[in-house]
Amino acid sequence: MNILTVTSLYPNAKQPRHGIFIENRLKHFLARHPEHTISVMAPVPYFPLAGHLFSRYRKFSEISPEEQRAGITIHHPRYLMLPGIGMYIQPYLYHRAIKRLSKTLARQGQQFDLVDAHYVYPDGVAATWLARELKVPVTITARGSDITLLPRFRLPRRLIRRALEAANACIGVCQALTEEMRRLAPAQENFHVLRNGVDLELFTPLSETERSAQRRKLGLPEGLVLLCVGNLIELKGQHLVIEALEELPGATLLLVGEGEAEAALRSQVQQAQLQDRVLFLGNQNQQELARIYACADILVLASSSEGWANVLLESMACGTPVAATAVWGTPEVVKSPAAGLLIKERTSPAIAAAIRKLHASLPQREATRIYAEGFNWDDTCALLNRLFTSISGPDKASTGA
Predict the structure, then answer these.
(1) Host domain of residue 10
(2) Which whole number is the average pLDDT over 187-202?
């Protein structure tokens, strides 16, 4: 089967961690089912004034039109983005870009048997239109804010509902997202929960000697080491963890990631006089990130919304338990004392209290690792293969919307 994956959430040379969870699923799927081939369309926005008024978008112009990653070809067609109104017209411009590229690939002899879309809006919406034109089936995987936040807007909500109902199968990375999709698209019947797995070879514990060496490398003092991994944005709640740090004397906080809130977070740290206890580590490659997970004592995730947070499993696989807000799919990940605990309220006092409680009775790192081993990729890839096979064929094409 020749599968076309459509998603704007995919790593590239300029954004190596962008949507890496989707790349991981494709890599693990192909490793277990090499009889299939996958090509990726990962559109990137084009901003006509990126060099002037919107210079922060300039990085998108530096992304190559085509890349090879892990043996998979990734195409990056451009689509126009107009700040302010872009969200409402984005599916139409996005569809125009992938349709144009699909025609080019068809002239080169490349035909697809199935369209596999990740993120419902605009990706899934545009993908259902493309699948209808190609006369092939389409699946849509929901991953978080595409279902938890975007349907609050009238036009996106209408297009999301139509796309979900037009798809041959709808996939959620957790049960909570899947149930919300059922509510949004009652005419759709083919829903599936296919959780993400974790790379148990890459994310692995360190020995105590190695942990000590990694802490020295980072210049960490003795005492509790907390870790946040994710984009530095309000949704991830790093500002709340910094507030909580004021109630945790002797604790050190590592922040891995970059984002629009970085300047505000640095200012917050300075005003609270926590410069010696908060380290901004920027983005890290996967290998170095695994070592950082393994040297921390607790991963803290204070998000206001999450579908299936991969950082939780990555941390657990390295032996580090988690304290995470109980939102959407997170309670489906943190289900045992070996995993850590859930934070019931998204406030700095609740975060501090949860950290103190977990620190007072930390699970054995070996137990946390064993818990994570229950989330390998085998079952997900087997179920995905059965799903693709069941809906493929010329008589199973999407009806569109």
Answers:
(1) 2-197+378-396
(2) 95
